[in-house]
Amino acid sequence: GFYDRGTNGLYLYSDDLKQLMGPLALGTAGTLQNGQCAINGATSGIVSDVGIDFSLRIGMSRKAGISGVTRVYQLLQTFAGRDSGWGEMVIWNP
Fold it and tell me: ω before 94 within 30° of 0 (cis)?
């Protein structure tokens, strides 16, 4: 999925990557979910927003039957369309 900073909207892709679900505003009631995970709007929010530095907390849980190590990736993009390329953000091993 992705987060749109300008609209405070969080989005999640369907399992086949053909449908985009959302938006879900950070800090509000609601859930986005596909066959792999669920994102809770109430437990998601902006941690820090100072200048060009931005930190986001996403309340995410894995669906039943999904186990083992899960890797979460990020791509950062400017308003001008430049991006960082995909990079591993976190390795989740509950």
Answer: no
